[in-house]
DNA sequence: TATCTATTTGGCTAATATGCCAAGTAGATT
DNA sequence: AATCTACTTGGCATATTAGCCAAATAGATA
């Protein structure tokens, strides 16, 4: 395996790892609807603010979200709004796992 | 957050976590081209067979791959071939992170 | 049957991720 | 300036993951 491919795999992995946590997935789903400040996301997640802040830091470093300070609140939004198209595929896997007839990405409801 | 949503998030997370490793991503990419036995995948990944076998076990439990024993080899294939549509989105995130103009899933090359 | 090849599993160590509390920072308000 | 609110960061304990070796399993072949 050459270095270029290794770098490629590593880059993709970083993004997937950042998404692969229930609280971070929840945050992404909510941000798909509208931007939110940390305190709103904290309520939704139901964990300590510091924990949510660290989750947001993970998402930020992965390039998934952008932050903007307004007043003394920090608002987060998705950098690439289409990120949830992703989940069409995840759902396909879950459906197949349940023995449902295979549906390919975007053909089922998310 | 209700129990249903929690279960939903957890199920999706399981799939994403299974994908979020360079070796497992490599395996998925290769299986998208054609089915492979463990020894072939082991060569491609360049790790111990036992390590690759455990990666395959993770992918199997997540519902991403299927295995079939033929002779004394075990062949793996993707359960949901569209899984790589995924990466259109991952690439969009990576591109945005690099400051490239935003391209949404499936509109850029993977 | 003995043996060889392919694969999985157990067990261990090292590395990484998670979550809370406490402490620090920054802008807004008094 | 002192304080309040919103957020981030440091630090630590715990949990999860990764990778290797050694041992177990299963089918193929001698």
Describe the structure.
The structure is a homodimer of 110-residue chains. Helices cover 57% and strands 13% of the residues of chain A. Chain A is α+β, with helices and mostly antiparallel strands. Chain A has helices at 3-19, 22-33, 38-45, 49-61, 85-97; strands at 36-37, 65-70, 73-78. In chain A, helix 3 packs across helix 4. In chain A, 35% of the residues are buried. Chain A has a 3-stranded antiparallel beta sheet. The A-B interface holds A 1, 5-6, 9-13, 15-17, 19-22, 25-26, 44-46, 62-64, 79-83, 85-94, 96-97, 102, 104-106 and B 1, 5-6, 9-13, 15-17, 19-22, 25-26, 44-46, 62-64, 79-83, 85-94, 96-97, 102, 104-106. Chain A binds a DNA duplex (30 and 30 nucleotides) through residues 17, 21, 37-39, 47-58, 69, 71-74.
Structural class by helix and strand composition of chain A: alpha+beta
Tell me the strand order in the biggest sheet of chain A.
1-3-2
Q: How would you state the average pLDDT of chain A, rounded?
A: 85
Structural shape of chain A: globular
Number of strands of chain A: 3
Q: Could you give a short account of the major beta sheet of chain A?
A: 3 strands, antiparallel
End-to-end distance of chain A = 36 Å
- Biggest interchain interface, per-side counts: A-B, 44 and 44 residues
Helix content of chain A: 55-70%
Percent in strands of chain A: 5-15%
Number of helices of chain A: 5
Helix and strand run of chain A:
HHEHHEEH
Low-pLDDT runs of 5+ residues of chain A are 106-110
C-alpha-based Rg of chain A, rounded:
16 Å
Question: Oligomeric form of this entry?
Answer: homodimer
């Amino acid at each position: 395996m050459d270095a270029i491919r290794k770098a490629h795999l590593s880059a993709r992995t970083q993004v997937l790892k950042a998404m692969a946590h229930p609280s971070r997935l929840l945050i992404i789903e909510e941000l798909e609807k509208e931007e939110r400040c940390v305190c709103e996301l904290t309520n939704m997640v139901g964990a300590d603010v510091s924990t949510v802040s660290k989750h947001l830091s993970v998402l930020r470093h992965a390039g998934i979200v952008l932050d903007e300070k307004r007043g003394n609140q920090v608002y987060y939004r998705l950098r690439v709004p289409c990120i949830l198209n992703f989940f069409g595929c995840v759902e396909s896997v879950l459906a197949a796992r349940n023995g449902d007839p295979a549906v390919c990405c975007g053909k089922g409801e998310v």
